[in-house]
């Protein structure tokens, strides 16, 4: 296959993203869906923090055992109930309306939770929050992945899940502050629950400023709207004929066409209907399980029991350790998010699993020494091992679980595949939340040996099956699983479309003539004066041959089918 004369690296913005106004505005708008992970972090960490507060325990008569497990699992149960509906909402209503629905349901749940007068009402509110949260969790990362600027997609999607810890930090320190300020008053636990309303409130009122996913718009036949969205936020000139926009639109169209030919109607069975899809789902399901069964669930949801297991019983001390751990987690997770395009996804997963295995072994040893020999030094050493364990966990599983899942799924099954990932996470969470407190009571430190053996299995799987995806567009990454030729076909399609756009100038609706590349009407800079920062093209052309290009705006709806297919180099 002849390599394309132009590739995406020829048209992307080079230099700091904050110097490009379009990217600045887009990244600011993407903060709103990014908030979803923080909302999740706050809500998921809340019960962990409330367990430390004496007022919450006394108000609800010191719940423990199965009751405590049900309180912790109520949010997950609500999520599982909502999961079957979320991909259909995202695929039919759109990513943005689905996010709005989730925010509205969550806000109702928060109101009910903060006003709870019984344990049953509290559990019901947790379930309602989980039901709304699962809609937002399905739509938000899809919107980020499909809307982000190409060179920032990996970082933005990785930062999405890493921002989970922003919410957990707010939860931990709000509980600590409420305890310090309100002591044994019921407001010491009602205030942290009220804080949960802030995120959904912001999303309800500002989601209207966030554009819909261009890939969703193309899939629904609204190509003109998709081109306008991409031109507004990806082009430096706002021109729909910018070669980058033409490149992206061509790849999106071609990828959707291939997917429709492969499966005229998609369902959950489509996720396992082809060898490529089965390989995708095997990796996705495995990583989803690993994300919750690596030992992190012990501290994430039952830090009170873990700390008491090494002799730390003061409520203030436990709250401070919990708050410091969340700050540490955020730093580690954001560091991993910034490294995804430098080290790669596979490398981060391997480093993470090796580090967790070694550290968890040391953590198990110190806990065993304290419980069997009452060794005070071992108890003190356990705390830094917990922090070190989370460093290794957070550099890979926190930022890349969702990013990697969405990258390897093609558009037609992305929402459904992502829903399955969320379902697996929810089921493993529910297992953790029911089994962990019982197992810790029954087995003590010996329960840690189960996780130690499981970490060995995780490492073998990651080394064997996880493949690298960095340096590819969303469509090219998804095509990696469908045979070696598929990524090349997508690169060829986008490159040829962009190459043709370099030679075409519009003179009236639907009328195109060939021009020299040096012709200038609306100048779009493709190169900076410092060529050392620009990746070489596949072609052998010199930079002096293509310093600038000319293009005029066109109205896509006015193009004939023949002209349109010619521009995007896609045979209908």
From TrEMBL:
It is a multi-pass membrane protein. GO terms for molecular function: carbohydrate:proton symporter activity. Residues 29-470 form the Major facilitator superfamily (MFS) profile domain. Keywords: Membrane, Transmembrane, Transmembrane helix, Transport. It catalyses: myo-inositol(out) + H(+)(out) = myo-inositol(in) + H(+)(in). GO terms for cellular component: membrane. This is General substrate transporter. The lineage of its organism: Eukaryota, Fungi, Dikarya, Basidiomycota, Agaricomycotina. The chain crosses the membrane at residues 25-47, 67-86, 98-123, 129-149, 161-179, 191-210, 283-303, 323-340, 347-370, 382-406, 418-435, 447-467. The keyword Membrane applies. It is found in: Membrane. Belongs to the major facilitator superfamily. Sugar transporter (TC 2.A.1.1) family. Its main location: membrane.
